[in-house]
Design goal:
alpha+beta, 5 strands, 2 helices, Ubiquitin-like (UB roll), 5-stranded mixed β-sheet
Length: 80
């Protein structure tokens, strides 16, 4: 199944793109997507547990994917 991964700021810089399509096996979780990203060139610059949203709603690493989702990997932000 395919999921679209969105990367922002330093995460996009680390992986050299702001979005990508990933093929993952049925039953995959957010944790599996993060492991796949970590194995890519530059993926070692991602933290082990970044903030993630699926289809614009925050999710945890155990969330199972069904295919077709948009998985956003969100870097920390600061503001005032």
């Amino acid at each position: 199944m395919t999921v679209t991964v969105l990367l922002f700021a330093s995460y996009a810089d680390a992986l050299g793109t702001s979005s990508m399509e990933l093929e993952v096996p049925p039953g995959s979780t957010v944790r599996d997507v993060l492991s796949t990203l970590a194995a890519l060139p530059g993926g070692d610059r991602l933290p082990p547990r970044p903030l993630v949203a699926i289809d614009e709603e925050y999710a945890n690493v155990a969330t199972e994917l069904l295919g077709g989702e948009e998985v956003a990997v969100i870097p920390p932000v600061a503001g005032g």
